[in-house]
Specification:
4 copies of one chain form a homotetramer.
Chain A lengths: L10 H7 L12 E6 L3 H4 L4 H8 L7 H24 L4 E6 L11 H5 L24 E5 L4 H4 L2 H8 L3 E7 L1 H14 L3 E10 L3 H11 L5 E3 L1 H14 L1
Helix pairs in contact in A: 8-9
């Protein structure tokens, strides 16, 4: 993916400083992170989308629903299967309450009415990309994966140094995970077509800020191609 | 500050879910965070700005330089003095290498050519808002304050539950600090006129994402007014 | 429990400095932590004990097995039931691999042959004190609860400031959790009769170091009494 | 150093499980941690020792004072000089308050009367082993180095995987740092003659628990020998 030239004021100055080098992407040190593809968060028929439709704002979901159906879910299927085939870890997060009543989720999530019992159907990963044996599923009690799970600990234990981050919402938990991941010295990639915000500007702003800064933004197929090339060379 | 109605696609859907409650702002439990106002990072005559000018992109700094001079530095002066007068902690961060050679800063910062010896003049807080006795200065080795300093530990020890976040750059270390701060259950405020990005869109995008979500965005004077009112009531 | 006077050289000097104040123990801000009471770690018939017996060191388990049967398991039953009755959170940890193959557990645990698939029967909490609806069960991938789970995040979200720590082994994961818990500014209690080391000196050394320093060491019934008194007063 | 056979009940059972492998110790991936050798904490003439003497318990300091003078300070001098000569990082911690009034130190340290302004002479590293240019000095606001500083972040940035831990007190901040360090998957060594507790049993208990479990306990000269051998081979 080539980044469009951007003529906004201040962009050229910023990119005099910001210029992340490329890095190798090897199956033995790379993990796939799939963020919040639960019925509550991601499905058109439950949770967030249902609330938005019931509040009369269903028309405003058009971008999100089409993108999820046509791009994101198929890309996630290819990525999860590809990582498993190469023996690389697949890590899912789902926002939920282990206690059941939401008291262990953040004040933000409680304020937003997003609390959900981890045992409920709506809190599970959508079956289209259901976790398989050997995958890791983390119950996330906040927004950034690193701040509210033990993911960093697991990644260090596994010798993982490179992350491919996917899921929803691009400018929210995905961006938050990439910002902290980059700060923790992980080499990060965003699989652009495997992520969605609720709005076109949500996607565009996240990519504009993160690309070449905290991560490289690439397509799922580009990333799978890089991994397969290294896998064959090994 | 009232947030303008935003008619972008998807914004209404998003804000059906996202709606952070107001909260009290009390001097005994609130800290001011001043991010990266060092000569290297912030001054027109050193470090980042000098590099940008030498690369021929000086014209692209117009927004940033005017905003810093006319809004941000005066607001930071009022805020730091106001917090000190009420006995509330003022915490500065500065990006620098304790080892001197940059090896203890993140790979991103090394790649961007941002390493600097913590003892150098350019790595110090600008004298216009120089730290005073009783302030805390943290050497930050990454982007988000929480990920690369012991700030959370200090805040818990001090009984601080509310943060007023300021400094540079709005969409980068400031936004990163507010995202993680909110996730750590701190009640966060961004003092909008005490922050700057390098571009108008950098400021606008950060505010659009964060306001009413991870923090409330208010002016420095609004925030000082809230603190003074609580201080007098106590 | 009164601490015996200790005439070892250096003890009096140390305790001129070390002297933790008492603190209130209230149901609304106190959590029970039950560490590693899984079949693998704790049961006489599985995992660690089985390995020790097969290696010909079964006689050396006498202290541990009697203490677990006669003191620890009954105390854990009273504590878990008591906390639930007062609406206070009960948090269990179990050492296991979410990935299944142990690669996400620490190098120490892998080196010690302690890896176990989180889905196996041996990795579950023993049925005598089985988790109930509303309890939290954390998969711990290292020794200290705080270092290898998101427990601190959950506790802050729930407004918990006081911990009652129990389980096995007193001088190992229990002590490690209390050391870090105290450092994170939690007020800590060790329920002495609800913990066991593998040896009398393991218990004695942990208590000697921790009591009045990182926690107060009390009996389960003393702690339940303190909670009930506060509960009735509220 | 060979570990004495220990015939205490339960010890053999425990060590059927606990058996840390040896690992290489290379200058390019090893850091020296020197804990709390400040005038307040370590010197016979200030802070803790002065308080103990004034409380009439000076005789009880005999073991500590002799060990520090004859073993620990000379070993720390050899270690710090040896690490610097091989280009390996030397990291000091000192317990102090950045705010000055102790409010940013833990409740434990405040309760123990251990608060001290980071700018005071008593809070500095003792001049016999004073930090040199290129060394890192961290202000530690709690007990364990990892829990209350950004040390883990710095170590990851520098590519450090192995730690040599030294300083005071063996069974307190030193042991706490090794426990958490091991849990964070660092390969840890304790340089036994470069550490001291306040009592012989404090040293003995820490070594009995940690050796072959969270670290290997070796002499300073053994460790320097291992590093030099790798350095010459490189």
């Amino acid at each position: 993916m080539s980044r469009e030239t951007n003529h906004k004021e201040g962009w050229r100055a910023w990119h005099t400083i910001i210029r992340l080098p490329e890095f190798p992407v090897r199956p033995e040190s790379t993990a796939l992170i799939v963020i919040d593809i639960t019925y509550q968060q991601a499905s058109p028929n439950y949770g967030n989308c249902k609330r938005i439709i019931e509040a009369g704002n269903g028309n405003d979901l058009k971008y999100y629903l089409e993108r999820m159906k046509n791009k994101v879910m198929p890309a996630l299927k290819r990525l999860t299967e590809g990582f498993r085939a190469m023996g690389a870890p697949v890590i899912y997060t789902r926002c939920a309450s282990l206690r059941g009543d939401g008291s262990d989720q953040t004040w933000r999530h409680r304020s937003f009415g997003l609390t959900i019992d981890a045992d409920e159907h709506e809190a599970q990963i959508m079956e289209e990309i259901a976790p398989q044996s050997g995958d890791i599923v983390l119950v996330k009690t906040g927004s950034s994966t690193f701040t509210s799970t033990n993911c960093e600990h697991l990644l260090h234990n596994m010798g993982i140094t490179t992350l491919v981050v996917t899921g929803i919402y691009t400018n929210s938990c995905v961006e938050g995970t990439i910002r902290v991941g980059g700060d923790l010295d992980f080499r990060c990639l965003m699989a652009e077509d495997a992520c969605s915000a609720m709005s076109p500007s949500g996607d565009a702003n996240a990519i504009e800020y993160l690309d070449g800064n905290f991560c490289h933004v690439k397509s799922s197929d580009e990333i799978l191609g890089m991994l397969r090339k290294e896998n064959e060379a090994a």
